Amino acid sequence: MALTGDLSETPFTDLVQFYCQRRETVALVVRSSRGEGTFFIQNGDVVDARLGSQRGLDAIRTAMRLRDGTFRVDKNAACPPRAIHEPWTKVLLEEAWREDEAVKLLMSLLPAAAQIKG
Q1: Residues paired with 39 in a beta bridge
Q2: What are the residue boundaries of the structural domains of the chain, listed by start?
Q3: In the structure, what pLDDT confidence band is assigned to residue 80 with cuts at 50, 70 and 90?
Q4: Residue 117 phi, psi (nearest 5)
């Protein structure tokens, strides 16, 4: 039986961390406003990712920003040949850093926008 849930309650990043740390082999299938995607984890490594028309690291980066949608985890899935060679920890940390930098930039622009309006 597959595990299913909602990405608003269990974020994509938490799912990836959980299955990678347990060194499991799964296919994480997501459905969201960005489309449908499948993320393959083999023995704790993210080996392939697809989300809509995106592939690889771009698909993972987009999935990390998902706040809506559903997921299904299929254990012991047959994984395609490895297409991602970066450690999952590096990918997740880099995207978290990018999100943090984007928020900082936005916050720095808000006072300037308020002065222009005023």
Answers
A1: 28, 49
A2: 3-117
A3: very high
A4: -65, -40
